[in-house]
Amino acid sequence: MREGHREFVESWLRRRAGTASAPLLAADALAAVWDRARRSLSELALVALARCALDAAARDFTVLADARLGPHGFELPEAPAAVLLPALGGLLIEFLSLVEETSGAILAPALEAELLRVGGGRRTPPQGIRPLRAE
Amino acid sequence: MKPKRRRQLELRFAGTVPPAPRERRIRELDLGYTQLRQLHELGKLLGSAESEGSEAAALRCLGRTVPLRIAMIVDAAGGSARTLAARAAGVPDAEVQEAAAHARSRLSRLCAAQQLAQGALTVDPEPLLAAGRPGSAGRSPFAALPLLLERKEVGGVLYVRGARPLSEADLAFLSAAADQLSLSRDRRAAWQREVRLRERAEGLDRAQKDLVAVVSHDLRNPLGAVLLGISTLRRWPQMEASKVGEHLSAIQRAAERASKLVHDLLDVARLDAGHFQLELGTEDPGALVREAADLLRPLLAERRLACEAQIEEQIPRVHCDRERVLQVLSNLMGNCLKFAPEGSRLTLMAWQEDGEVRCCVCDEGPGIAAEDLPRVFDRYFQGPHGPTANGAGLGLSIARGIVEAHGGRIWVESTPGKGSRFTFTLPLSADAPLSAEALPLP
């Protein structure tokens, strides 16, 4: 279960890492997952799961020790892409694993599908635009 | 990308054009009318009942909306998981236990705790109402929703197994139901805190009134005696030396009585406030008992009371505060002294029993009526003989406080007309047993 999510997130990160700045990608991905989860989980349940995932991921990624849970979801601190992207991956793996461990296959596949839409050019960026690759 | 579009985006990225408002998809939980109505029912159910029985009813309520085989609430309590379960008709015990273990592991994950041990498992005798056709056992999907304490930490889970694969709509409903449960628990906890605070406030109010009564009565008397004695000595400066000595002795006795009362009141205040400090050490209980008897020897002689100490041989040492245990013995003996008839016998005993040391003070006084026995250790309790000049009814209360501060117990047994027997326990020290012999006191 966990390995499946790890493979998915790592693959997603490999494909999306260059499409946007790391902070933008992180904010977009976490917002997408959060908003999708809100459709099926109450505020209390979602915050509890998110806090648990954040605590677990922070054990492996120290940058997450400064992350917070706000009313709109995860708020990651500023950090270089080399630090932020692995932490983002770790947090997503923890969150997806936790969602699956607590609700089976009801919600986790939908969250993964939502994640696939992030950074693929079909979502409007939350603020500004993504840096463009040389064509 | 077309150059024009690209230029537009670059301008926006550079901050020359205000960013587009962030797309937000704030949506409510996807709940249907039936689910909302059932949540309303659930809220009424949990809001109206104060007992935990309402949670079993809440589990049954869930079964009316989502076809469930099993629904349970699992709470983490002191390293173990307490489970309240409800099941549909025909679900075997083994499946309930297996589900409880699964729920426990989910709770451990959410609490970030080590594996919780299986605690009490209570199964509601009333079956879940099946809202749909039950599925086959062992393939049911599940959901474990966190139950929060004070909206912060996870204290339990609402765990369900569906009679058919659960949908997202089911999950949304169950999630909202879990919130209702969490909030109802918070309300109940707040109510219980309120009740405790009110009881404490009432207790403090009573204690204050009692204190005023003690100070106005028991402290005023000895102070009055002191003032009267001094006034007499000043009025008759030529008084005979022997008479002066008598007055001074009376003044001293009254001052000592007032001093003891003040000390007792301070002890009571410390016990109430939880600031009672013990200086724990390893002590020989036999030596403590003999010393207590020695301290009261003048009073015993005055009342012509015989006193005997019976101490078990090889009695082990105890872990206690020496001065405070002497105070307990002194208070118990002082109480017996008030009521023991002249020429009777006071017996002190110490022995080991059930992994602790027991000390006992026995008298041959009039005894205590059965209806008074439960109140003997209450603060300010006075026996049927009424308030005496020598006490405010604090000695036995303080003795109990000291013994309990040691982790021990104190109790009294009495037969009217034959005397009373006060016993208290002290915890053993890790040291080796110490020999002692029965030493009859003069």
SSE blueprint:
The complex is a heterodimer of chains A (135) and B (442).
Chain A: H1 2-16, H2 22-38, H3 43-58, E1 68-70, E2 73-75, H4 81-103, H5 108-116
Antiparallel strand pairs in A: 1-2
Helix pairs in contact in A: 1-4, 2-4, 2-5, 3-4
Chain B: H1 3-13, H2 33-48, H3 53-65, E1 68-77, E2 80-87, H4 93-111, E3 117-123, E4 142-149, E5 153-162, H5 168-235, H6 241-273, E6 281-283, H7 285-295, H8 297-302, E7 306-311, E8 316-320, H9 322-339, E9 345-353, E10 356-362, H10 395-405, E11 410-415, E12 419-433, E13 439-440
Parallel strand pairs in B: 2-3, 7-9
Antiparallel strand pairs in B: 1-2, 1-5, 4-5, 6-8, 7-13, 8-12, 9-10, 10-12, 11-12
Helix pairs in contact in B: 2-3, 2-5, 3-5, 5-6, 6-10, 7-9, 9-10
What features would you describe in this structure?
The complex is a heterodimer of chains A (135) and B (442). Chain A has 135 residues and is mainly α. Chain A has one domain. Chain A is 59% helix and 4% strand. Chain A is built from five helices and two strands. Chain A has helices at residues 2-16, 22-38, 43-58, 81-103, 108-116; strands spanning 68-70, 73-75. Chain A has a two-stranded antiparallel sheet. In chain A, strand 1 and strand 2 (73-75) form a beta hairpin. The termini of chain A are far apart. With 442 residues, chain B is of the alpha+beta class. Chain B has ten helices and 13 strands. Chain B has helices at 3-13, 33-48, 53-65, 93-111, 168-235, 241-273, 285-295, 297-302, 322-339, 395-405; strands spanning 68-77, 80-87, 117-123, 142-149, 153-162, 281-283, 306-311, 316-320, 345-353, 356-362, 410-415, 419-433, 439-440. In chain B, strands 6, 7, 8, 9, 10, 11, 12 and 13 form an eight-stranded mixed β-sheet that branches. In chain B, strands 3-2-1-5-4 form a five-stranded mixed β-sheet, sandwiched between helices. In chain B, helix 2 (33-48) packs antiparallel against helix 3, helix 5 (168-235) packs antiparallel against helix 6 (241-273) and helix 9 packs antiparallel against helix 10. The termini of chain B are far apart. Classes of the chains: A mainly alpha (135), B alpha+beta (442). Chains A and B meet through helix 3 and helix 4 of A and helix 1, helix 4, strand 4 and helix 5 of B.
